[in-house]
Structure formats: structure tokens, C-alpha cells
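**C-alpha cells**
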Amino acid sequence: MSGSRNLPSRAQSALASFLLVALSFSLAPLTALFTLYALYTRKRSPRTRAAGRQRTALVNGGRMQKCLFIARALAKQGWRVVVVEEQGWGLLSPARFSSSVDKFVLVPAGGGQKYISALIDVAIAEDVTLFVPCSGAGTTGEDAKAADLLRQRRSDLRAVIQDPDLVEQLHEKDKFISLVHSMGLEAPNSDVVSSPEELLSLLQQPALAPRILKCAAELDDVGRSDLTTYPFLSPSGAPDWPATEKRIRSLPIPIASSTPYIVQEFIDGKYTSEWCTHSTVIDGQVRAFVCCPSNDMLMTYYPAQDHPIGVRTLEWTRQFMTALLQDEKWQGKCLDGHYSFDFIHQPAAKTNPRLPGFYEKGRIVAIECNPRVHTAVGLLSQVPAFGEAYAEQDKKKEDEDANLSAPVVPLPSSSPMSWLAHDLPARLLPLVVPRLLRRLVHPLWLRTSDVHSPTAGAGAGASAGGFDLDAPGSRDAAWDAEDPLPFFALYHLMWPYLMLRQVFVRRRAWSRINVSTARIFEC
């Protein structure tokens, strides 16, 4: 049985929020001077101008860092960039302050038909010919539906998101795992249950290996990082069914037909490691690719496309796309889009990272796919050809011998990236603030040495490859010397606003924060 960490009270979350706002405001004058100096001395890279009418690209998800990465890449290729964000988020979104963004538009929040209609209206009004969705999980389905309608109305518009049915197949974990198994590729052994009784019956099957639970139909902020294994065991090692049933019946999101759970094989092992990838796929080709060692909330991104795992996951992705292209179900459907796969590497038995061929062997298991842009694309921000990965489809092949099979990847000189707004309070201040005081402020304000992450295996395995996921990166992902205002807006406008909104409007406790996606994990 895995022990659960103490969650913060609403008062503790409010105190932590106020302290984070105070930290932001105290550093704002220094950041302002730094930003003003960069504005005064910057040397703007000229935009590539295509002959004739300038093309317009629509990018949504303006509050997220990945939107900014995409907008900058497209602007450098000569695109006029229109960014969209949902009302309630857009007022202080970093993208609103970017010199790469030509127009910023607010649309109705919360998804649904009003959101879809607003996206379509913006695309038509702005004469958009390229739509690159960068929103979060909550509106991915609506983005796909809007893109599908736009393709029907505008034959010259290309939308980089899959057919709505395929988006659903990829997004829902149980359907994705079934799809992977049908292709003969590795995915965890899984079952879907719709009641506590069904789950208990499944767990009582003889010789069943330990299982973990994931809600299949909801965004579960509390359960996202929960790797509790079932059934619980007594001190003697026998299944503890009363404790197991008590936990199952008290899950934050109840097991029901409307909220089924995936009962998934727990892939463990001392050197097991987790990896994430981003692939931009156009016309069945992987045009851009990033691989990084990962954990349950990755905040330091290392480029690992040349690592043996990077090579293997790229090959896995190509095999997946080949199988998808050959599947009759998807014939005539749009497969263009972003495929962000998460993998687990389970090493062969009786081996360790010091032995030759460690990462070349063992299982590569796909555990989920997010059909949207991954924050890891920030590692491509220094690659001029990244924007061309989207534009290439609109060009006639000038060189028939061009090697289109080689995707755009991070430069060999690319350095790991993280965010100062995470590194300072979460990684550096805990080194000097006493543990007791940290626990009083927020029970999850911990040093790495205070707790073993449920994905410690990922850290252990990745560290053997030269990656330390608990250390700050060597560059700030939000900083761009040619476009410095979004850096100031992210740290001193948007995040103070979000923290104060959490206290006075949302009025709920939170367990952690993802600076890059503007995500506050409520509990």
C-alpha cells in the first residue's frame, strides 16, 4: 500500500499564494530593468516574407508557453500570427505581449459550441490558412471539431489537428491502449471498470499482478500522480481486502458508468524510467520530434533525441503512424497533428544503467498519447527550421531528393530548459527555509531529499543517462532576448493574477502549480 501525502488546507494554500505573489512583486523591479535593457539592445531577426499576400496562422492557448513557442516559430517564417485565448485567461496572457503576435482575440471559455463557433469566426474573419491548436486537454475535442468544420468551409486552410474521432481515440486512455494493442505495439495490460464491485472482482483474480487506477473520463488533479498499487497488502503480505475496498469506495472521483476507471498494469523496477515525446506529423511524416526524460510533472526539459531511448521512441512513433495510415478505419480522415506520447522503459532483468546496451534493450511501453502540442517544443525554439515543419506542406517540392524523412530536432547545442518561477520557490528556497516552516506553510513544499517521488524510478533511470530532473535547467524557457516582454508578463502579471484569483474567486486549496501551462492543481 502506498502512503498518501498530506494535502494542504485552504488556509495553507492561501498563505502560499500570498507568499508567491509577494515574491513576484519583490523581484519585479529587477526583472523590469532586465527586460527594458533587452528591449533597448535587442536585435530582431527579420521575418521571412513570402511573395504575394502574407499568410495568416491561427494559434490558440495563449496562456501556455507552448503557444508562444509556436507563434514565434511561425512569425520567423513570415506568418502573420493571430493568437486566441479563452475569456478569463487572456487579459494578462504572455502571448498578448509578444512581438511575434500580430493580433490577440478572446473567445468564450469552457469549450462547447460557442467556443467552436468563435474559433471558426476568427479564422474566417482573419483569412487564416493555417490553424495550429495549442490549447489544453479540456478543449482538444472542440479544437478538432472546429478544425473539421474549417476544412469543409475553406479548402485552402490546413489545420494541424487530427480528425475528431481520432482525437477521441488518442485522448481517452483506454481507447488509446486498445489501439496500440491492435497494432501489435507495446502498451500496459489494462481493463476498464465501471463500479467498485467490478474492480474488486477483477483484483481478486488469481495471480493478477499489481494494478494502478486512472480515471478514464475526467481530469483528475489529485489522482494524476497517484501510483498506489492494488490490492493493498497486510503486513504478512496477504491481500487486505477491507482496506482495499474502503479506499476504492472513497476515491475523489467515484467509480461509475459515467466516470469509468482504467485498471492498468503497474510497470515497476529499480531502473524503470519514464520518457515523453512530441511529434509534429504532416502528411504521415514525422516533421518535428523531441524526446525528454520525464516524470509526473516535468519542469526541466532535457533534449534526448540522440539518446538510445530517443532513437527507439522515434522509431516507435513511425511504426505507429505507418499502422495508422494503413488502418481502413482512418482512410480519408485527417491524420495531421501533434502526437505527444508518454513511454516507460522497463529494462531487461538483471541489468543496470552501467552495463553496455542498457537503454537499447528492454520494453518500450506507450502509456498514453496527448493529441496536442507538448511543452517540450520549447527545445525547438532555437531551431530556425521548426516553423518550416508547418509551412512545408504548402510548398511544392523544389528538390525531389530532399530528405523529408529526417524530422526537425533540437540543435546539438541545445541546453536543458526550466522556469525561474518554478526553480526559485520549489527548488532553491527549500535549501534555506527550515523544513518545519515549509510544512507549516504548505505540506507539499518539500526538498527532493524530503520525499521519494512516485516516479523516482524515472529519475533514477534518467540520472544514469546524465539527466537530473530535479535540477534547474541552464536557461529559462520563457526568455527570448528578441521578445522579452512575455517573460515579464508571465512572472509578474499573469501568475500573480492567477494566484490571487485562486484565493478570492476559486477559493479552493491547491497541491501544486505548473508554471508553463498556467495549471493550478486543485485538491
